[in-house]
Amino acid sequence: MAPIFKADDSFDRSLFKGASCAFGVFDGVHCGHRFLLSCAQQTAAENGGRSIALTFDIDPDEMFNADRLRKLMSNDERLEMLTQTGVDAVVALPFTKDFAASSPEEFLDRTFGGHVPAHLHVGSDFRFGAKAAGTVPDLKAWANSHGMVVDAHDLKSEDGAPITATRIRKLLAAGEIVKANHLLGRPYFMTGIVKPGRGEGADMGIRTANLVVGDQLRPLGDGVYAAYADVEGKRYKAAVNVGIAASFADRAIATCEVHILDFDGDIYDQYMKVEFIEWLRPMRKFDDIQELIATIQGNIDWVRKNL
Ligand SMILES: Cc1cc2nc3c(=O)[nH]c(=O)nc-3n(C[C@H](O)[C@H](O)[C@H](O)COP(=O)(O)O)c2cc1C
Ligand SMILES: Nc1ncnc2c1ncn2[C@@H]1O[C@H](COP(=O)(O)OP(=O)(O)OP(=O)(O)O)[C@@H](O)[C@H]1O
């Protein structure tokens, strides 16, 4: 697996010399990002240099659009997934207020510190520097005077539109999990530590492992989904309610309630990963508890038969 370097003051930027870098946030590490990373691997193989995923330690929108940010994964998950894309190294630039305020030219000077890569791969929509003022032509002008080749690629498209993190977030918000997974090239997942619920699930004969996933990490629309749950190194079928259970909204705090099929272990305080596969129905408020139980049982039966 590729090492992760945090590009703080102690980072040796000579790592960039002769390298082929792909530059971006890479939230979701989707098929478009993987295409760009494979281009960096290709020029690295041709030139004999390293291939590097160049990114930021946080998502810049955490600084600028925190209230409406719906990330596809945590920063640690994003860096970790980048290490598994086949690049030789992942470099995370600390995205501080000061760095974000750099002019486009200053931004590039500070990023490379005098050690420019041989190739820099970006998408044609790439912007950089304060107020995202830097464009691909600006990048090319800087690169010309520093001996770097910029490869600005047309965005990889699917079904007639570019694959972007924004497009995937919109699909997830609408519960369109199959389409979102197609653009991600893998199932969308949520992760967290299992917390005790209210115990009402057990009383109803349907135990649930509960995650409290904050808004910033919950682009997926409320609803009931068929999924797989990874617990204790094993993968189980699962029926999942995403969102605060409408029938118990006055006392519920979990935002991802997972009924794991054929499982009755105690996994409180354990890490769980939930991979979403199909949307089953909207979440509803039930006045009759028996109707809620019968509906959930129907969802569990569907998962058992179809996943
Ligand atoms: C597959 C599934 C579907 C669910 N659908 C709904 C729903 O439509 N409306 C609702 O209010 N709660 C729904 N729930 C949430 C249950 O009401 C919840 O799991 C129960 O209140 C148990 O909570 P507890 O784990 O905190 O004890 C669903 C749960 C599961 C596992
Ligand atoms: N579909 C794509 N094909 C090729 N390159 C892409 C594609 N999408 C993004 N890129 C490039 O990958 C890098 C990372 O981009 P970024 O993280 O901004 O992705 P994004 O998916 O476009 O996100 P957002 O929708 O939030 O703008 C950038 O250089 C960007 O131009």
Automatic annotation (TrEMBL):
Location of the Riboflavin kinase domain: 183-306
Gene name in the database record: ribF
Similarity comment: Belongs to the ribF family.
Pathway: Cofactor biosynthesis; FMN biosynthesis; FMN from riboflavin (ATP route): step 1/1; Cofactor biosynthesis; FAD biosynthesis; FAD from FMN: step 1/1
Protein name per the record: Riboflavin biosynthesis protein
CDD domains: FAD_synthetase_N (cd02064)
E.C. code: 2.7.1.26, 2.7.7.2
Keywords: ATP-binding, FAD, Flavoprotein, FMN, Kinase, Multifunctional enzyme, Nucleotide-binding, Nucleotidyltransferase, Transferase
Organism placement in taxonomy: Bacteria, Bacillati, Actinomycetota, Coriobacteriia, Coriobacteriales
Signal peptide region: none
Organism: Senegalimassilia faecalis
GO biological process: FAD biosynthetic process; FMN biosynthetic process; riboflavin biosynthetic process
Domain of life assignment: Bacteria
Record Pfam families: FAD_syn, Flavokinase
Reaction(s) the record says it catalyses: riboflavin + ATP = FMN + ADP + H(+); FMN + ATP + H(+) = FAD + diphosphate
Gene Ontology molecular function, alphabetical: ATP binding; FMN adenylyltransferase activity; riboflavin kinase activity
Record carries keyword Nucleotide-binding: yes
First-level EC class: transferase
